[in-house]
Design a protein that fits this description.
Blueprint: E1 7-11, H1 15-23, E2 35-37, E3 47-48, E4 51-54, H2 56-60, E5 68-72, H3 77-87, E6 94-98, H4 101-105, E7 118-121, E8 130-137, H5 164-177, E9 179-186, H6 196-206, E10 211-216, H7 226-234, E11 238-242, H8 245-249, H9 251-261, E12 264-268, E13 278-283, H10 291-297, E14 305-307, E15 310-312, H11 315-326, E16 337-338, H12 343-355, E17 364-372
Parallel strand pairs: 1-2, 1-5, 2-4, 5-6, 8-9, 8-14, 9-10, 10-11, 11-12
Antiparallel strand pairs: 3-4, 6-7, 13-17, 14-15, 15-16
Helix pairs in contact: 5-6, 6-7
């Protein structure tokens, strides 16, 4: 899709936003962006690379708005929904969300011509709705039994796999709601799934324009089946590797393996450190916490979770009944929304999940407790409970 000679505005003073500013049309500085836009008022009236940072209101007052191309350089679902609502009031020429892989691959980007790393959208149009983020466990089991795993992976057996036909059915239902910007396939450990290539192909067939990531601890990557690695490359999948201590020890070996397969990947520590050394424990057994505060500090606050034909606010929300059953806690949590419901209803609920806390957020502490990362094959209830559940 061509964009003519429209001027560029980058929404988001992020690592990706800065990368775009320096790499539009392969560092052609004659076509540098007109401005950054950011909702952080502290950044307004500053400059990045001699490019001014402005507010949404400032953008709305620009001349010839219909000639402006707005590129979103953000990944958080809440931020995307907020920005799309703001853009409904601003008649920009074109709006696109830039895929994170642009920065990972080191490519330049030309939004004036065909750009397969940009998801072009039309804010406010029902027929062109965007689902910013969905994550789904392909299997609940994991080969690395992390203490306090937010997906309760150490509680599951290796046969706890999302049936392929149900997975395809649920992705198709999601496609009727809108286009997914970022779809993450995780677990558990997805490389435990023998026919992972079939899950990859199904996701790419249904969501041809999406960023699709496989989230893994990386320990099985160097021994992965060749057909799986080929499928990852052929279907333009990015691998996100959680850099736990045992993964860090073989980081270079993993990198060599993935480089030889010519697939996109990145190592994720979540906090900029060289490896993951801490987990956060915030779950309690009592609904006594301030949901607004808990939601602000929660790392899963915008992680809409797909499971067995239903959408949930987060993995805790979708998996908590298995947790209760494992520890014989006499409780049943009713939550989620059935994918069989009307598409408009589902889309509004998706927005609510990303933008607002739910009642379940009251089970999470306002200030998560840090615990050292460790492996524990025989998990105890206290491994998850903040201050023993109080």
């Amino acid at each position: 899709m061509g964009g003519g000679n429209g001027r560029i505005v980058i929404w988001g003073v992020t690592a990706l936003g800065k990368y775009l500013a320096d790499n539009i049309v392969h560092k052609n500085r004659k076509r540098k962006p007109l401005a950054f836009v950011d909702n952080d008022s502290k950044l307004n009236n500053t400059c990045i690379y001699d490019i001014p940072v402005i507010s949404c209101d400032d953008l709305g007052m620009m001349e010839n708005l219909k000639e402006i191309i707005v590129l979103l350089a953000v990944r958080n679902a809440r931020h995307i929904f907020e920005i799309l609502e703001q853009l409904e009031r601003i008649p920009a020429g074109r709006v696109g969300i830039v895929r994170h892989e642009v920065m990972l691959s080191g490519m330049g980007i030309d939004p004036w011509s065909s750009a397969d790393r940009i998801l072009w959208i039309a804010p406010g149009k029902k027929t062109n709705r965007i689902i910013p983020y969905i994550e789904v466990n392909l299997t609940d089991a994991c080969n690395l039994k992390c203490r306090g795993c937010t997906h309760f992976s150490s509680l599951y057996e290796e046969d706890s796999i999302y049936p392929l036909n149900a997975y395809e059915r649920d992705l198709l239902k999601l496609r009727h709601i809108g286009r997914i910007f970022r779809l993450r396939l995780l677990g558990g450990e997805p490389f435990l799934v023998k026919n992972l290539d079939e899950y990859i192909k199904a996701a790419r067939t249904i969501f041809g324009e999406s960023t699709i990531e496989i989230v893994t601890n990386g320990l099985l990557l160097t021994k992965a089946d060749g057909k799986i690695m080929s499928s990852i490359k052929e279907n333009d999948i990015c691998i996100s590797i959680s850099l736990y201590p045992p993964t860090y020890k073989i980081k270079e070996e993993i990198a060599r393996c993935l480089d030889s397969c010519a697939v996109l990947y990145y190592f994720d520590t979540g906090n900029g450190e060289k490896e993951i050394t801490e987990f956060y424990r915030n779950l309690t057994l009592h609904r006594i916490h301030d949901a607004e505060v808990s939601g602000q500090v929660c790392s899963s606050a915008s992680c809409t979770f797909l499971r067995n034909g239903r959408l949930y606010k987060c993995p805790f929300d979708g998996l908590i009944n298995d947790f209760y059953e494992y520890y014989q806690i006499d409780r049943k949590h009713e939550s989620g929304i059935d994918l069989a419901k009307d598409g408009d209803v589902l889309y509004e609920r998706l927005k609510e999940y990303a933008l607002k806390p739910t009642e379940f957020c009251r089970y999470c502490a306002e200030k998560p407790e840090r615990i050292p990362w460790s492996v524990k094959a025989d998990p105890a209830l206290c491994d998850w409970l903040y201050q023993n559940g109080r």
